[in-house]
Amino acid sequence: MPSAEFIERYGRLKVKNVERWEPNVYEKELLRRTWSDEFDFLYELGSSIYSYIFEHNPNCKQLFPQLIKYGDNWRDSREFRAQALKFVQTISQVVKNIYHMETLEPYLYGIGQRHCKFADRGFKPEYWEDFQFFLHISSPTEALDTQ
User: Fold this and answer.
1) Cα 86–46–55 angle (5° rounding)?
2) CB-CB neighbours of 30 under 10 Å
3) 7, containing H or E segment
4) Which of 45, 74, 75, 142 could make an SS bond with 67 (beta carbons 3.0 to 4.6 A apart)?
5) pLDDT for 142 beyond 70
6) Rounded to an integer, what distance in angstroms lies between the CA atom of residue 115 and that of residue 28?
7) 81-124 per-position pLDDT tens digit
8) What is the pLDDT at residue 46?
9) Is 67 helix (H, G, I), strand (E, B) or coil?
10) pTM, to two decimals
11) For the segment 15-39, what is each residue's pLDDT rounded down to a tens digit?
12) Going from the N-terminus, what domains does the chain have, and what CATH number goes with each?
């Protein structure tokens, strides 16, 4: 759960669930033109997202048991790097196919199915709130500066 200081500063994030996003042409072009598939950018963005989440709510690490054996060095592990890249590569697929979102439905549905395992690992709604908060307060450039 976010700390009292965090809640006092930013309040509780209220984000309604989005079942279907229908971006307009401007939004599609903005995404397509500003997204980078450069490896270093993707790795740093994914790493920043997970680092922020784990540092602001260490309980989230329990969802990734393969990181526990690394203790405080989890950020240097191959498993962490792989997870950070998987996340941003998924975003990249969405951006690449922004004009053909219907082709991504099976791909994204499969990811959702695989994430059901997190319920058995102790997933709590506030973990998702931390994740959403990070995505809402940070542009990719700002995200890299939060480390």
Assistant:
1) 120
2) 13
3) helix 4-10
4) 74
5) no
6) 27
7) 999 999 999 999 999 999 998 898 899 889 888 888 777 888 77
8) 92
9) helix
10) 0.70
11) 455 566 788 999 899 989 999 999 9
12) 23-145 (1.10.490.10)
- The tokens describing 147, both together, are 């480390």
Structure tokens at 19: 């079942």
Map tokens 């989890």 to a residue.
74
In 3D space, the residue among 144, 136, 147, 138 whose CA is nearest the CA of residue 18 turns out to be 136
Q: How far apart are CA 140 and CA 101, in angstroms?
A: 22
| Pair of tokens at residue 8 | 């006092």
Report the chain's terminal Cα–Cα distance, integer Å.
Answer: 20
Q: Which pair of tokens denotes residue 65?
A: 């048991």
Q: What is the DSSP letter of 133?
A: H
- Tokens read off for 126: 């506030």
Q: Note whether 145 and 26 are within 8 A (CB).
A: no
The amino acid occupying position 111 is I
Crossing angle of the two packed helices 39-56 and 78-96, in degrees rounded to 10? 120
Tokens of 61: 């690490």
